[in-house]
Structures are given as C-alpha cells and as structure tokens.
Amino acid sequence: MMVENGIRYCDYSVPHLVDETLREGIERTAFPITVEAKVAILKSMVAAGLRDFVVGCGPEEPLVWDRLHLARDTGELPADTRATFIILLNCWETAFDYFKAREAHRQWIADTVFSFGMITYRQSTGEFERAIEAFRSIGAVRFKASVLNNFRDGVSNRSYQEICRQIDWAAGLGVEIIRINDSVGSLQPHVTQWLCSRLVKDFPQLVFCLHAHNDNGLALANTMQAIHSGFQMVEGSLAGFGNRSGIAPLEQVVKLCQANNIKLGSLELDLPGLISAAHQCEEAFLQLPSIYRAVSGKFETLSNYGVLNIPDFLETNDEKGYFVNYVGLHPQTLRQALENYSSAGLDVGAIADQELWAIVDSLKNEMQASIPHIESQYRQVMGGVMDFYRASTYTPRQLAVYAEQRIFRRRAAHG
Predict the structure, then answer these.
(1) How large is the greatest C-alpha to C-alpha distance in the chain, in angstroms?
(2) Residue 249: beta bridge partners?
(3) Quick check: 38 and 254 in contact, CB under 8 A?
(4) Biological process (GO) annotations (predicted)?
(5) How far apart are CA 242 and CA 285, in angstroms?
(6) 12-285 placed in CATH 3.20.20.70
(7) Is the preceding peptide bond at 59 cis, omega within 30 degrees of 0?
(8) Percent composition of the chain: helix, strand, coil (DSSP 3-state, to 5)
(9) Which of 100, 156, 273, 280 could form a disulfide with 48 if both were Cys (CB 3.0 to 4.6 A apart)?
(10) H or E segment at 82?
(11) Which residues contact residue 305 at a Cβ distance below 8 angstroms, ignoring those fewer than 6 apart?
C-alpha cells in the first residue's frame, strides 16, 4: 500500500459500499416512480455486484424494502443483499408505525440498518433516544447516524468538537456507523483529508462514511479523499443522482478505485454493468441524458476523430467511438478516415493535399449550411422538453391548493 504523510492512495480495501440511487435519485426526480421500476433498477445493480442499498427514507412507506426482502427470501435476489432505511427524526413516528406493522418480519428488521438523520431534532426532550428505543422494541439492532454539517466556513476546533459530541452521543446509544454529511456540498478536499483522518484516529472503533454532495463539483474528490484518509464505507448513487447537484457518482468512484487497486465492498464490481444501470436510471427517472458525463455519459467515449485526438496520439488504446466536427477537418483527418474505413482500394498516400483541401472546404460549407436547421431542431426539441417538465411537475403552490380544496370539501361534507 502506498502511503504518503499518513494518507493511503492505492492497494487497500474499503469493506463497505452503499448505493443511494433508490433514495437520493428518487428524492431528486420530479416524477413519481413505480415500485416495479425501482425494483428493476435494484436488480440491475445487484447483477453488477452491488449488495447494500438505501431503499427508502421516512415518511415514505417502505414498499421497496418489502420487495427487496421478499425477493431475497424467494431467491430472486442473492441472500447477501442488504437494506438501509433512513429515519428522519422530525417524522420518525410515521416511519416507526410502518415498520411496527411489519413486526412479524422480525428477521428483516434485524437485518436492516436504520440510519437516523437530523439527530439533534428536539434534542433537549430526548427525541433521538426515544426513536432508537422504539425501533429496538420491534427488533432493530443495526443503527447508523448522520451528523449534518454546514462546512462553508471549513471546520473549526469548535465545530469539530460539536461533531465529536454528536458521535459520542450516537455511539453511546449503540450506533456503530457514523455518516459525516457534507449537507450543503461545501467541503474542500484538503479539509476533508484533515477531518476524516482525525475522526478515524479519535474513534477507531466506529465505521465512518462521507455523504458528499456535489454543489461545488467536489463530491467525487471528497469521497476519494475520505477513503484515502481511512473511512471504511463509500456512499454514492448511479450517475450521481441526488438533491441539488447530486452526490458522488458511484460508477466514477468504482472506476477510480479499480484503476488504483482499491477493493470496494464484498464482491467484484462490473463497471459496464453499473454504467448500463445508470442509463436505466436516467430513463426511469425521466431525466435528460447527460451525454458527456464522466464514465457513464452515453457519448462520453466519443472522441474527436483525426488530428485533434490527443489520446490516440498518446497511444492510450482506450475503447472509444468517434465523431468529426468542423474544427477537426484537415487533409490528414481525411487520409486517416480513408485508410480506416474506405473499401474502394484507393492509394491514400498518393492523394495530394490540394485535392483533400478541396474536399475539406466542400464539407465545411455543407456543415455551415446545416447550422440553422440543426439549431432550429434543437430549440424545438428543448422547448418541448421544458414544456413537458413544467406541465408534469407538482409545485408547492399546487400542493397548497390541493390541500385547501380537500380541507374545505371535507369540512363542508361534515357540516
């Protein structure tokens, strides 16, 4: 294992890998998703080697949790498939009622990690303690706690002590996994390194993960820095789906770890399978595809063909497809295309540059002439897409009007 200044960068293992697509992704999408669509995504992720999933967040009814365990019991999913369910303390009683109604499935409850968020909610009245004890009463034994943070001003000694206070408090209640939440996505990687290294040193008995939001585009960097610094769990979601700018894209984390001999989770992970599942998520969530997104963008492996292709010049031999645009048109690009794709038996080396420049100029003129039509098509397509999103999304105002109507209708019916 290569270690520099106490930080490991390759050749090590991270034993725990948790996927949040079925929580963060579902929270982010503006459209309702069926349970069957969620289960189909779950099965694709399992096929790619993932085993540990956040499958819901109270006050949501745990329908995917139900389906996961039913599928596991019938052999539809592997026996080592595991579920985490997030319990927010400002609505924990609703979540508890749902699970109490499932008390007959005591083994399912015992196998589940109940992850508590907003643990400081009504702290003075012992709300966290009450919630933990209630879930214990129905058979829960595995607990995780999320420490929420606003890191926009970094981490001071005072804020670090508050983090430690919450960790000690949770650990005293039997919590064994601590999630450090970069709640507004403002951590910087050097601060992440300092914070995570210190937490691992100060709390060696606990499992830590970083829940890294991507508001500043640093979720991937912060996630990698956290495990380099000793955190033993990775959280992320396919394609980075999540609130605001999302969280760490799981397939990007996996690719980086595979490149640096960092073993994630309990099984070998199928990166192409994860990429395929990310595409499946885009379609299920009715999202515009991010075609050039790192690792899982559908056109991400397309490269500019010919003289502009630096990776080919460097002989990286990456798998890729190609496109040709106005900038890349050059006699040498034409020669390369004729050599690679022509079946006419031309002596490409004997074709003069002057003849090829004439072809370049002709194609440039055609490309320029097509621009108005292409731009018009794009505006029509995007206009339709935005109309679709606006028409299909519920707003808070619609929620208020809907509630008002039902309240007045019910009151009128009851005199």
Answers:
(1) 94
(2) 237
(3) no
(4) L-leucine biosynthetic process
(5) 11
(6) yes
(7) yes
(8) 50, 15, 30
(9) 273
(10) strand 82-88
(11) 322, 323, 324, 328, 333, 336, 337
Beta bridge partners of 52: 82
Positive or negative torsion for Cα 82, 183, 210, 278: positive
Dihedral through CA 127, CA 130, CA 133, CA 138, nearest 10?
-100
Supply the pTM of this predicted model.
Answer: 0.92
Q: Which amino acid is at 167?
A: I
Q: Is the dihedral of CA 133, 137, 143, 146 positive or negative?
A: negative
77: how many CB neighbours lie within 10 A of its CB?
20
Please compute, for residue 94, the number of CA atoms within 13 A of its CA located in the half-sphere on the CB side: 12
Distance CA(379)–CA(383), nearest Å, equals 6
Structure tokens belonging to residue 400: 């208020």
Nearest to 44 by CA among 196, 272, 260, 215: 272
Domain limits, CATH 3.20.20.70, in the chain: 12-285
- 181's CB contacts (< 8 A; 6+ apart) are 117, 146, 147, 148, 149, 211
How confident is the prediction along the chain (415 residues), in pLDDT tens digits per residue? 656 667 899 999 999 999 999 999 988 888 889 999 999 999 999 999 999 999 999 899 999 999 999 999 999 999 999 999 999 999 999 999 999 999 999 999 999 999 999 999 999 999 999 999 999 999 999 999 999 999 999 999 999 999 999 999 999 999 999 999 999 999 999 999 999 999 999 999 999 999 999 999 999 999 999 999 999 999 999 999 999 999 999 999 999 999 999 999 999 999 999 999 999 999 999 999 999 999 999 999 898 898 888 888 888 888 888 999 888 899 999 999 999 999 988 999 999 999 999 999 999 999 999 999 999 999 999 999 999 999 988 899 999 999 999 999 999 998 7
